[in-house]
Amino acid sequence: MTKKYLTRYKPKPETLPPDNIPEPDDLIGISIAVAFLAARCRPKYENARAFKNKVNQRLRYAIKNGHLADQGGFVLFEDLITWARTKKFEGGLADIRLPVKGSVSADLPPMQGEIRGVCLPVTIEESHEALLAADQRIAALERELDLADRTLQEQRPYVETGWRVRQLKHRR
Predict the structure, then answer these.
(1) Which of 22, 23, 57, 55 minimizes the C-alpha distance to 39?
(2) pLDDT in tens, 37-69
């Protein structure tokens, strides 16, 4: 009779560290995708191994049902992040920016106008820069408002005189 020796479970080293973010059009292996999502999105109260299992099951279920395209054991990183954000894995994915693809075409008469877009800051430094820029813009607008108010106060007597003259003309 041979004696069986118990071996300890030794987890594999992370194949993709959470700080190393692939490009949106990169193909990454399913096991790497699971390790990436588990490392970045695991809640503090959840066991690491159990959460990794949960991510693995959800990822394979998404591939099986066609929510993610399986490309020979690989998935497109952009599709993976988009899928993960819809599945409440948002916690650790806020700093990953994906390009927005699309096109617009229309046959319209010549028009004038402007298009505005907002890109929210991701990091604290970007937030501070945005706040400083907004503060400077507010100060400039307050100066313009003060100038307009002073001009209005200067012109008020002339406007009131003109109003009185018009009133007198209409009474006759």
Answers:
(1) 55
(2) 887 777 778 787 888 888 888 888 988 988 888
